[in-house]
Structure formats: C-alpha cells, structure tokens
Design a protein that fits this description.
The protein is built from ten helices and seven strands. The protein is of the alpha/beta class and about 240 residues long. Helix 1 (about 15-25) packs parallel to helix 7, helix 8 (about 170-185) runs antiparallel to helix 9 (about 190-205) and helix 8 runs parallel beside helix 10. The termini are far apart.
C-alpha cells in the first residue's frame, strides 16, 4: 500500500498544502519533504484544509535515499510518458504501477519539483517510473493534482496479492552481486547499461523473497567462479 508521499524540492506552499489535503482524502498520513524550496508558511495551512496533522508531522530530509530507506518499493513519477518510452528506465502508467504493489508493501510515491520534476539522479533511485496519461496538448499536471490522481488510483488495492514480495534490501543485494560480476567480465560491452537493465527488470518483476534468495545464491556462485577464473588468469600472465 502507499505508505508515504515524497515531494522532492517542492517550490510552492499551495501545492504542499493541497497535496496534504489529497493525502488525507485517501488515507495516507506520512508526508516527506526532500530539500523543500517552499517557505512552508501560512499558505500551506490555508490549502491543507482539515489536514493540518499531515503538515505538522511531515518530515524533512536532505536526500531521497534517506526519505525512502524503509520502503520496499519506490515509485517515481514524471509528467512525460513518451520521454522514457524507449529507454531502459521504461515508464509505465500509474495504473500499471498499482499492480506491482501488494497489500503488505511499504510503498513511496515520489514527485519532483513543479519546475523541473525529478532529476536524473533521483529517477535512478526509484524502482519504477510512472506517469499519468494526459492530453498531448497539455500533459503536465499540477503537482498537487498529480498527487490526488495517483492516490485515487491506488486507493483500491485489495486485488493485489504480492504479499510475499522480497524486501528492498534483498533486491539491492542481487543488484550489487550482479554489478560485481559484470565488473569482472572484461569482454562485456557497456557494463553500466547491462547492470541498469538487470536492475529495471528485477525491480519491475516484484519477485518473492524465495525467488530473490535463489537468485542471490546463484549469483553468489557465479561471482566465485568469475573471481577464481580472474585469479588463475592473473597467475598465468605473471608467469
């Protein structure tokens, strides 16, 4: 389920307040602000009608990593669905993203600033990238409106049964193992691209804990073989 809304560098008090109100509408209580540019003054309370407790309990962080380190899945948002159509970080609709989140998941929905959206670095820290399909004539939604639409889509999540999805720590372990292996394959072209592809496929698959444990055991054995082969090759070259 949606555990928290994360606003990265929000610029306007009105949007922060309106986002808090939308959160109250759909039962989400945790608001995280990453390096907020908004003053968080009177306008916030004005627009956060009947939801001041969300604002009062909001947490401020210096980085996106710190804001989502307790989450099992992190969904970043963008206003441009077509921009990422042919890239490794494939963008899906928010409705499709909903199907990846189970009832026992701790999920964060991440939104960028009104002016520039999420940075490339912060997008890379998200497990899934999602957008709200809208008119090509004017497809960028107001920040608080986007929060409301996304929360509406996620409000009825009972049909999802990904109750055994692996924790984020286990998935990150798989990614680290894969990166370590690819780094030692001298003939592998564009290692960063291959590693990024593995990361995106694994993130979108929502594999179970048992599946990820099995994958990590396999990758661990592959790593040993690759490192052993590298040591043997080094000995031969030294001779």
């Amino acid at each position: 389920m949606i555990e928290k809304i994360v606003l990265v560098e929000p610029e306007h008090d009105a949007n922060v307040g309106s986002a808090a109100r939308a959160m109250k509408n759909f039962g989400v209580k945790k608001l995280c602000l990453v390096r907020p540019k908004a003053k968080l003054g009177f306008e916030v309370t004005l627009y956060a009608k009947h939801s001041l407790e969300v604002i009062e309990k909001a947490e401020v962080f210096d980085s996106l990593d710190a804001a989502v380190n307790d989450c099992s899945i992190v969904i970043g948002t963008t206003g441009n669905l077509l921009k990422y159509r042919n890239r490794l970080k494939k963008c899906i609709t928010i409705r499709q993203a909903k199907k990846l989140v189970g009832k026992k998941d701790c999920c964060a929905l991440v939104f960028g600033s009104e002016g520039s959206g999420l940075s490339k670095a912060d997008l890379g820290k998200c497990d899934v990238l999602a957008a709200i399909p809208a008119s090509a004539e004017h497809g960028i939604l107001n920040l608080s409106h986007a929060v409301a639409v996304c929360l509406y889509e996620f409000f009825d999540y009972n049909e999802n049964e990904f109750v055994n999805a692996a924790g984020r720590a286990k998935v990150l372990e798989s990614m680290k193992l894969f990166k370590r292996i690819s780094g030692k394959l001298s003939h592998l072209r564009d290692k960063q691209k291959v590693t990024s592809a593995f990361k995106q496929v694994l993130s979108r698959s929502r594999a179970t804990g048992g599946e990820v444990n099995a994958l990590n055991a396999f990758l661990g054995e592959v790593r040993k073989l690759v490192e052993k082969e590298g040591k043997q090759k080094k000995i031969v070259e030294e001779k």
